[in-house]
Amino acid sequence: SQTIHQWPATLVQPVGSPLSLECTVEGTSNPNLYWYRQAAGRGLQLLFYSVGIGQISSEVPQNLSASRPQDRQFILSSKKLLLSDSGFYLCAWRGDTFMNTEAFFGQGTRLTVV
Amino acid sequence: GDSVTQMEGPVTLSEEAFLTINCTYTATGYPSLFWYVQYPGEGLQLLLKATKADDKGSNKGFEATYRKETTSFHLEKGSVQVSDSAVYFCALSDAQGGSEKLVFGKGTKLTVNP
Predict the structure, then answer these.
(1) B51 interfaces chain A, CB cutoff of 8 Å
(2) Which of A58, A102, A104 has the highest number of chain B CBs within 10 A, making it the mutation to test binding with B?
(3) For residue B73, which of B85, B60, B81, B62 has the smallest C-alpha distance?
(4) Is B6 in CB contact (< 8 Å) with chain A?
(5) How far is A94 from chain B (nearest CA, A)?
(6) Residue A99 in contact with partner chain B when CB distance is under 8 A
(7) What is the Cα–Cα distance from A17 to B96, expressed in whole angstroms?
(8) Chain A residues within an 8 Å CB radius of B49
(9) How does pLDDT run across B36-77, given as a tens digit for each residue?
């Protein structure tokens, strides 16, 4: 069966420090991968998605970047965190999007920038 | 573009009350529709889905019917429990409309009191 792992679960980082959040998927190949952010008490904001290795689409201009160095690995990064980067970050994967399949989510990373 | 509109929360009910959370959508193709649930501090879990008009998705006592004529996918449960307290998201996938993305509503927070 397929599983998605996301770490760390919680993170407290000072303003101006770098960030690296990692997400890996097991049990499937060539997944579509997504990074979402959820601000406190608000909905989901799609940050990045990837349909293949090295292919990244950015949804909103911001202080973050994403990379996909391997088929089942998706990394969210920042060189210098801002207070506004605080939030709950969720990684998700989907199979064949032409079949309108559902997405499966990781457990999330709670990031607090102080 | 595609969009999902769901009722603003929060919704507060007593145990065993009837639940309805409204969801309407706009899409250019023939979308699949989903309801996700997010328990506090966790990622999203798929609750139910429907892939074509008049399909009824159901799970854990929750139901939703894909109504193409009213472009709706309302979530219902006949008797809620305290354990149903969570945030509920309506979403669609519209690959035929040319998108690899899931489109989410803003979420509805449900609190069930004993």
Answers:
(1) yes
(2) A102
(3) B62
(4) no
(5) 9
(6) yes
(7) 42
(8) 102
(9) 999 988 999 999 999 999 999 999 999 999 999 999 999 999
Residue whose C-alpha is closest to residue B87's, from B25, B21, B24, B32: B21
Shortest Cα distance, chain A CAs vs residue B101, angstroms: 8
3-state secondary structure chain B: CCEEEECCCCEEEECCCCEEECEEEECCCCCEEEEEEECCCCCEEEEEEECCCCCEEEECCEEEECECCCCECCEEECCCCHHHCEEEEEEEECHHHCCCCEEECCCEEEEEEC
DSSP H or E segment with residue A63? none
Measured CA to CA, the distance from residue A6 to residue A78 in angstroms comes to 17
Flag whether residue A105 sits within 8 Å of chain B, measured between CB atoms.
Answer: yes
User: Are B89 and B35 within 8 A, CB to CB?
Assistant: yes
Please write the tens of the pLDDT for every residue from A57-82: 998 867 899 999 999 999 999 999 99
Q: Give the angle subtended at the CA of A43 by the CAs of A37 and A45, to the nearest 5°.
A: 40
Helix (H, G, I), strand (E, B) or coil at A53: coil
CB pairs under 8 A between A and B: 59
Euclidean distance between CA atoms B111 and B84, whole angstroms: 8
